[in-house]
Amino acid sequence: MIDLLVVGGGPAGLATAVHATRAGFEAVVIEPRTTPVDKACGEGVMPSGVRALAALGLPAPPGHPLRGIRYLAGPHSAEATFGAGPGLGVRRTALHAALAARADALGVKTVTDRVRDVRQDADSVSACGLRARWLVAADGLHSPVGRALGLELPDHRPRRYGQRRHYRVEPWSDFVEVYWSGAGEAYVTPVGDDLVGVAVLSTVRRGFDEHLAGFPELRARLEGRPAAGAVRGAGPLRRRVRRRVAGRVLLVGDAAGYVDALTGEGVALALASAEAAVRCLRAGRPEAYERRWRALSRRHRLLTEGLVRVAGTAAGARLIVPAAARLPTVFTAAVRALQ
To answer: Could you tell me the pTM of the whole model?
Structure first.
């Protein structure tokens, strides 16, 4: 019998498999897609995420160092530097490939298949004809495993969606820049010496170029710059679950619950939850993972929830950047609380 099945071969699943293997477990990853997988992602890794990658024994993937966060809206701007070392702007495909190479070097086996059914009893859990002591579902924002186990909760708030496109241009800043408007936000993340990623988040369903028109300063910077690759989208972004432990199944990464991409914590939280899940399994206390997940994500959830609520109205969104500019100490404290 295998020690651990990991459903999902993205960053959260691969990080789980690497941690498990280094803890002495036999881990098998089940993933239907070929590595690396591209997806809509802000592609900014906070300093805690950079440290988590290093803890996996992973050489830093190619990217661009990030010094902090800058908010912009018309004549107003506010910026805060990270206090715990640099973050990293990195292409999603580069991050995925680096994690896959690390897992492969440790001998992690990957099965190319799609999980359609999960069965468990008092001693084991089975999927795709494989039997294990435990299963980690790291199968993304709309987790099929979580849904099949009845863990998904409805959400009646306005749905937010994200789109991302890359532009071939030399980064003009080593900050993640967040442009605000009454209809949403646009994020600019440098991910290479001649490449930036631009992501837009909004409750309004429309094309990327239509969204970009709502940010004239950013659109002017990108005018005439060639797009590098297609637009990719994701959403609805918010995911609510009843709990993160169901018998011998643990939910990790976005599958464990997701508030919004607004504060850029997706990758860092995925890596942290992967490590926490394996620690709890190694200690023989899987039930402790629920409490541990809530603790490690609490500040992120509270701050992101609050910001999304304020940004949910045009009047509220117009106040965020001027308020951050008038209260730089508070803004810096908020950014560093999430780093």
So the answer is: 0.94
